[in-house]
Specification:
The protein has 256 residues and is of the alpha/beta class. It is built from nine helices and seven strands.
């Protein structure tokens, strides 16, 4: 039996502000009976998404009674060294602390406008445990250079807080693995995912890499769920100590 009825893949972008239309933001959706399709932004097919629109759209998807899984391409948290430095002991505390120093969900703020002199920073040589389990994941603190995840992460985390705070209590999503590695039956899930490890598994049917990546995320979570393997990926072979670390640092769904 499938865990989810709907599958969403989001290829993220940290460019400009939360209300800037960004061609790098791509949203795809599938169901157990329908293949992934590009979701058009509210403004129409001739426009690109904004991060603010994506967050509100995600909230709408969580309102239905059927469980949905949303895979998003940016880091959900920071390395343990950062947490220890600022005495952060749980993810909700991290979200609140981060919001105070990086309010990138505000309409007029960008990573660049908040970056210089910001006290809540880290070194690009610092990695989370999940990133050390891959051969290609970059540090969430790397903010410069092509293909970096740092800006997406710094822009996406405040919107995770927004969704967590504003989701309907009757349909509250499970932020994996911060709310636990095991998924309660009938519960929607929001998880970090890394399209680069999936990109070559599926034929390219769309023009841009961003579209292809969002499609791959959607197709992969659907495939793993309908084949009965997604539960395995929700429980990577970690020690008890590593699980405690991942409950604070987060984990990339698909790294096993």
């Amino acid at each position: 039996m499938n865990l989810f009825k709907t599958y969403v893949g989001i290829d993220y972008s940290g460019a400009r502000t939360a209300v800037s239309r960004n061609r790098g933001l791509q949203v795809f959706q599938a169901t157990s009976t329908a293949n992934p399709m590009r979701v058009k932004p509210p403004a129409g097919k001739k426009w690109n998404w904004t991060r603010k629109e994506v967050a509100h759209w995600c909230l709408e998807q969580l309102k239905g009674g059927d469980p949905v899984i949303i895979g998003i391409d940016h880091g959900f948290s920071f390395p343990m060294r950062y947490m220890e430095r600022y005495r952060i002991t749980d993810w909700d505390q991290f979200l609140e602390d981060f919001q105070q120093h990086w309010p990138t969900d505000q309409d007029d703020r960008s990573v660049e406008s908040l970056r210089h002199g910001n006290k809540r920073t880290g070194r690009h040589t610092d990695f989370r445990l999940t990133e050390n389990w891959t051969s290609s994941a970059q540090s969430v603190f790397k903010l410069d250079g092509a293909g970096t995840v740092g800006k997406s992460t710094h822009c996406g985390i405040p919107w995770l807080r927004f969704i967590r705070r504003n989701a309907d209590p009757a349909n509250r999503p499970h932020f994996w693995p911060f709310d636990g590695f095991d998924i309660p039956p009938g519960t929607s899930v929001i998880a970090e995912i890394f399209p680069s490890i999936l990109r070559k598994r599926y034929p390219r049917r769309y023009k841009t890499t961003d579209e292809h990546d969002a499609m791959c995320v959607t197709q992969w979570v659907k495939d793993m769920d309908t084949r009965g393997h997604l539960t395995t990926y929700f429980n990577p072979p970690l020690t008890d100590e590593e699980r405690e670390t991942a409950r604070l640092e987060g984990w990339i769904l698909g790294i096993y």
